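Pasting two entries for a bug report.
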Amino acid sequence: MPPDDALVTCAGTALTFGRDARAVVAVHGANLTIRPGDRLAIVGSSGSGKTSLLHLIAGLERPTTGRVTRAAGLEPSEIGLVFQNDSLIPALNVLENAALPLILADRPETEAQQAALAALAQVGVQNLADRLPEEISGGQAQRVAVARVLSQAPRLILADEPTGRLDHASGARVLDALLAAADLTRAALVVTTHDPSVAARLAQRRTMRGGRLLAPEETP
């Protein structure tokens, strides 16, 4: 049985794409428990399975074998996922993109925009509020994608290489914002990264290698 205080528990969770000779195992039997207030870095090289594991935790993929158990009171809207690609909607400006999850959750438009503006300020792009995605850089777009998640004040924040497309100063600011937002609501924060300096800022670290999530004692 998962711990009573767990937000998400993975038990022998595996994910395979394709079948037979073409089958590719992206995640091999991962065991992981995420609790409120956790600060976890999942470290590994490109192709190690980090993104696939994050998608399993978020519910975007269903495990081929094993289980992913989420707390009974954890609503999908309380899980915020920062994708590796910014995934902004081209027809919406920066403010509208950041406010979109709140609008879809039936929050009043004025309230949604205020929360979105505050989140944009946290990552230093509030001055871009009226710009369209095509009018900003890739790094700026990634910061907007982070703000879109922060505006929701989720209970679980999953960030997939959130600093990978940013320079050092911008990356540090984004990580500051993620940590501050998680501290404010006692949310759990899980960050995938290949950058040791990013991993060093989170209290817990697990390594993925070849689709396997190593136990803490196995971590190099």
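Entry 2 (this is the one that rendered wrong in the viewer):
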Amino acid sequence: MPVAIITGASKGLGRALAEALAARGWDLVLDARGAEPLKEAAEAVAGHGVRVEALPGDVTEARHRAGLVAAAWQLGGVDLVVSNASALGAEPLVRLAELPLEGLRRALEVNVVAALGLVQEALPLLRESAAGAVIAVSSDAAAEAYETWGGYGASKAALDQLAAVLGTEEPGLRVWAVDPGDMATDLYAAAVPDDDDPRPAPGSVVPAFLRLLDERPASGRYTAPSLVEGR
């Protein structure tokens, strides 16, 4: 069975993607900071009859990233790494004039440095896979100038660039940066708590990620809505 590592997998898009991959027979290594929500998610995902390892921890810690890859190796290797864990930098979001620099550092550490660190740890196994792939969950804030989204958007723009270069440097892999579009997630609620407009559930964009895995287009940046609508 193929094996995927998914960070930020206790809820939202990470959990929805884990459920979808498990339904297809993938074995999974799941990460999140909250032990109890992660345990609950892992139990639900394991209901599909696949092997699931749940490792609570902080992706900014090298030891934790090594543990995720070691757990995947025990399951048979690494075929897919999904960097979905994200930090906003401030909750709720604030304009750049008020953005705490420590918050910006945290966003960069989680969204960029840790994502690269996990890929570096997993690269030997990804290269051995017949269909190794990396998915970096991006944002439209990486490409558009939205007030208060500067720090978070800057971190996602940096992640996009890392993904683009990795795709060039590792031609044997597929490396996709994916903007999932608007979703109803805890992250968005924390970012803009006074915005109660309805938004799609994270599960609604999962078909876009599955399409990438099925069709394996060239490495690059994709938007989930365009992938779903293009079916």
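Dev reply: Rendering is fixed now. As a check, the viewer should reflect this: The chain has a mean pLDDT of 97.
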